[in-house]
Every structure is written in structure tokens, then in C-alpha cells.
């Protein structure tokens, strides 16, 4: 059976324990912030894909266009089928979809990531608030100790 969680006030922790908690929160914040940045990049990538799909139009059939291979590499090509596109669905798999299906696919990806970004942003804000509380209590304890307050020594 799981044991019930015990709540400890940060004011009851000593300076070393507070420093350790602060270090753990900093590591968590760094990890969450990196994850947030990666999600935002993925979201931007899917938005770009959606824009590219929306730029494929029937009137472009048989015209020479620039085909994006990467974000910075485009090659000239002729559009032979303006109703279908190839969609990267991940891990090296590609499927042929209509423009409407591809737009729906990328829109759903953008929305899914948006909800994750929003949730992650809330978590980051809560962790930052916790960090501020820890830092405040830690500063108070250090100040009290340097002013000859209780040090725990005899």
C-alpha cells in the first residue's frame, strides 16, 4: 500500500535542505523550459507545413514551383497533382493525402501541441512561484543566521 504523503513547511527546513530543494526546482525548471521551447518549435514546423499545403492550388498545376526539402533548402519542380500532397506522419513514414486531409492533419497537430504548451506553461509558472518562495525563505534564514540568529550550534 502507498503511504500517505506528509506535508512539510519550507519554513521548517534548514539552509542545506532549502538549497537542495532550490537546486531540484532549478533542474526541473530547466527541463520544463527546454521542453516548452521544443514544443514551440514543433508547433511552428507544423504551422509552416499547413501554410505550404494551403499554397498548393489547382492553378499551380504544371507550373514550376519551389519545393521545400528543408526549412532552408528548396528545389524547383513541376506540380503534377494539385489535389494530393505527401505528408510526413513521423518516424520516416509518409502518406498521400488530399490537400483538405493534409490541412486537417496539420491543424490538429498544431492544436494538440497548443494544448500541451498551455499546460506546460501553467506548470512552469507554478514551479517559478515555488522557486520564489524557496529563495525568499532561504534568504530570510541566511540573513537571520548572519545577524546572530539561531544557528543550531551551542
Give the SSE layout.
Layout: H1 15-55, E1 64-68, E2 74-78, E3 84-90, E4 93-98, H2 99-146
Antiparallel strand pairs: 1-2, 3-4
GO molecular function, one term: unfolded protein binding
InterPro entries: PFD_alpha_archaea, Prefoldin, Prefoldin_subunit_alpha
GO cellular component, one term: cytoplasm
How is this structure best described in words?
- GO terms for molecular function: unfolded protein binding.
- Residues 8-42 form a coiled coil.
- Keywords: Chaperone, Coiled coil.
- The protein is of the alpha+beta class and 154 residues long.
- The chain contains two helices and four strands, in the order αββββα.
- It has helices spanning 15-55, 99-146, and strands spanning 64-68, 74-78, 84-90, 93-98.
- It has a two-stranded antiparallel sheet with strand order 1-2. Strands 3-4 form a two-stranded antiparallel ribbon.
- A hairpin with a 5-residue loop joins strand 1 (64-68) and strand 2.
- Helix 1 (15-55) runs antiparallel to helix 2 (99-146).
- The protein starts with 14 loop residues before the first helix and ends in an 8-residue tail after the last helix.
- The mean pLDDT is 88.
Instruction: State the order of secondary-structure elements, H for helix, E for strand.
Output: HEEEEH
Helix content: 55-70%
Report the span from N to C terminus.
42 Å
In the predicted model, the low-confidence regions spanning at least 5 consecutive residues are none
Mean pLDDT: 88
Strand order of the largest sheet: 1-2
Number of helices: 2
Largest sheet: 2 strands, antiparallel
* Number of DSSP strand runs: 4
By secondary-structure content and strand pairing, the structural class works out as alpha+beta
* Strand composition percent: 5-15%
Radius of gyration: 26 Å
Tertiary shape: rod-shaped
Amino acid at each position: 500500500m502507498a503511504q500517505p504523503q506528509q506535508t512539510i513547511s519550507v519554513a521548517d527546513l534548514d539552509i542545506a535542505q532549502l538549497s537542495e530543494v532550490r537546486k531540484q526546482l532549478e533542474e526541473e525548471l530547466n527541463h520544463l523550459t527546454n521542453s516548452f521551447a521544443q514544443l514551440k518549435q514543433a508547433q511552428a514546423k507544423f504551422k509552416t507545413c499547413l501554410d505550404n499545403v494551403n499554397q498548393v492550388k489547382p492553378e499551380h498545376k504544371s507550373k514550376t514551383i519551389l519545393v521545400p526539402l528543408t526549412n532552408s533548402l528548396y528545389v524547383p519542380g513541376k506540380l503534377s497533382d494539385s489535389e494530393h500532397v505527401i505528408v510526413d506522419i513521423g518516424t520516416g513514414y509518409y502518406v498521400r493525402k488530399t490537400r483538405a486531409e493534409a490541412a486537417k492533419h496539420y491543424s490538429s497537430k498544431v492544436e494538440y501541441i497548443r494544448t500541451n504548451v498551455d499546460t506546460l506553461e501553467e506548470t512552469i509558472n507554478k514551479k517559478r512561484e515555488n522557486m520564489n518562495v524557496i529563495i525568499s525563505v532561504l534568504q530570510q534564514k541566511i540573513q537571520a543566521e548572519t545577524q546572530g540568529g539561531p544557528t543550531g550550534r551551542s
